Amino acid sequence: EDQVTQSPEALRLQEGESSSLNCSYTVSGLRGLFWYRQDPGKGPEFLFTLYSAGEEKEKERLKATLTKKESFLHITAPKPEDSATYLCAVPLPSSGSARQLTFGSGTQLTVLP
Amino acid sequence: SQTIHQWPATLVQPVGSPLSLECTVEGTSNPNLYWYRQAAGRGLQLLFYSVGIGQISSEVPQNLSASRPQDRQFILSSKKLLLSDSGFYLCAGLDSGYTFGSGTRLTVV
């Protein structure tokens, strides 16, 4: 069964304390892996799309990387405003042109000042 | 780039009442459209998707239905709400990438 698993479920960091979030997937024929940020009561906000192993993308204090089995979201010197839930998702291989996403359960990040 | 509009932002409805949530898309034509529900916690569950006008696919059997009367309009409905229908409903569109609306918080009382 195609699955997306995120860890840890929750992470508390001190401001400036770098760390990584993990997203592992078991889908075959990956057609992209998506990272989103979600603030409470809001819709997910797009961060990155990765398509092939070895690919990396950066945005401010965030860097996403991809291997054949997992993706990492590295947060360097986080600030309190980075506190949010981070979601990863992949399109279901069986979805054809519909390309519906299956999501992990997310990592709730709290950055303390 | 596309923008997804959803309303209302918050809704409190009694058990047994009908529901209609609307999603409209701006900035693109003929996008794939999706309805997700997010229960307490963080996971998003796909409810319905549409690849075109009048084309609806359901992912899970439930008390809800969806319709796409126009290219850029996607509606989530129920004839009689259940307590278990409470949750955070998100509309998303696929153009060059996936974009989400701001969501509707539905509480069934």
Description of the molecule:
The complex is a heterodimer of chains A (113) and B (109). In chain A, 0% of the residues lie in helices and 53% in strands. Chain A has no helices and eleven strands. Chain A is globular and about 45 Å long. Chain B is an all-beta fold. Chain B has strands at 3-7, 10-13, 19-26, 32-38, 44-52, 55-58, 65-70, 73-78, 87-94, 98-100, 104-108. In chain B, the strands form two sheets. In chain B, strands 2, 4, 5, 6, 9, 10 and 11 form a seven-stranded mixed beta sheet that branches. In chain B, strands 1-3-8-7 form a four-stranded antiparallel beta sheet, with no helix packed on it. In chain B, a hairpin with a 3-residue loop joins strand 9 (87-94) and strand 10 (98-100). The model of chain B has no long low-confidence stretch (mean pLDDT 92).
Sheet of most strands of chain B: 7 strands, mixed
Secondary structure tally: strands of chain B: 11
Q: C-alpha Rg of chain A, in Å? A: 14 Å
Q: SS-based structural class of chain A?
A: mainly beta
Assembly of the depicted chains: heterodimer
Main β-sheet of chain A: number of strands, strand sense, barrel status?
6 strands, mixed
Taking pLDDT < 50 over at least 5 consecutive residues as the criterion, the unreliable ranges of chain B are: none
User: How large a portion of the residues of chain B is in β-strands, by DSSP E?
Assistant: over 45%
Give the helix level of chain B as a range of percent.
under 10%
Terminal Cα span of chain B: 38 Å
Question: What is the string of SSEs of chain B from the N terminus onward?
Answer: EEEEEEEEEEE
Shape of chain A: globular
The dominant shape of chain B is globular
